[in-house]
Design a protein that fits this description.
This protein has 8 helices and 19 strands. The protein is an alpha+beta fold and about 300 residues long.
Amino acid sequence: MNRLPFPDGVLVVDKTPGPTSHDVVAVARRALGVSRIGHTGTLDPMATGVLPLVIGRATRLAQFLTASDKDYEATVAFGRTTNTYDAMGTVVTTSGERPAREQIDHALGRFRGTFEQTPPAFSAKNIDGERSYNIARKAKDGVVVRPKAVTVTVRELDVMSFDGETAVLRMRVTAGFYVRALAHDLGATLGMGGVLTALRRTRSGEFGLAGAVPLAEVVQLSRETLAGRLLPFSTLLPELPAVTLRGPEHVARVKNGLEVAPGDLLAALSSLPELVRLMGPDGTLVGLARPAKTPGYLHCAVVFV
């Protein structure tokens, strides 16, 4: 007997330490019996926490979901550096010095707001068409080239606790931010080195730990139970304004690649933001649209019908 297709949507997984994000996708692909599946933001193998998996048509929303802010709880140990900027790497330097709580609070000031951050050499960033970690692994003289700096924003950054050796930091950052780089750069600012020893992502955009499924349960639970834990396709990207098409004929126009005129909508927005959700008259998500060149019109960026 053939199994029913798994519905489209997002399954939020609570990742355990050890597997890569790609490994988690592979586990879910086998457990759910789906081929169209991906994730919306890589977590390092040592990291735990929120890893949203996009399934079916939701894979086409990955680029928009990935761009959301992320919340982390990170543990930084002071007094050493490694080549990977975390506890899994090879120790490069050591120091007997340790910071005072007040020094950490003061140093964190330079890492709040918008600034240029240089990703770790052992990262997936591209350098002239090759992954940075591949270049770093092949470096024979021990000198590795870090990727180019990127603009990041740290909206919140605070010390949750400090025991004299390690500090637990809580932060909200933009997409593309490397917590490992923060640990390394914070240690450099304090003059004694620092490495990331634990990392937990507590939120990725609209997805938090409250609705996350532990990775072990992805394998243990039935497909039907997991389908019930899925965030439905039409409810995704709730932060985007929504406009509703008048009827099936207007949905057909979108399907045929035509721009959406103000008269095609039940109610037009007073001003058009950069991106809106196009909803069908039955409440389904039809597509995402941006303002067209013609004032008041919408041009579809992604169509799902």
